[in-house]
Amino acid sequence: MTTTPQQLADQGKQAFISKKFDQAASSFTEAASAYEALDDALNAAEMKNNLSVALLQAGKAQAAYDALAGTDEVFAQAGDVKRQAMAFGNQAAALEALKKNDLAIEAYERSAALFAEAGEGEMRSTVLQSAAMLKLKRGKMVDSAL
Hints:
Distance between the termini: 53 Å
Number of strands: 0
Structural class: mainly alpha
């Protein structure tokens, strides 16, 4: 019996909840490939974002960043501002883990602007807090007062 992309995604989510991050990453990778085979770019991009989060939790920051390649553009082309913002937020988190703090701050700020556009005030606030904390760590206290 063939496993559907949605079943693979569900398996990934269950593994993630169980803190089995490598297993989750594997399921999300398979789900992304399955969605790509169906020419479903939006769901493939969503799975790549999920993959990125799982990889980051598994301590694989570079792989997490690499998994996101082009996902923000897929969401932008579809007019899905909220998921585009989430993709930038995930990029920022991976960049922060890679100690690329200036790039991380830029990505957090892009994410925050898109969350504002999407009317997602709480998510925007969370992202701005992450950017501010990173600025404080870097000694840019003046810039952190957004």
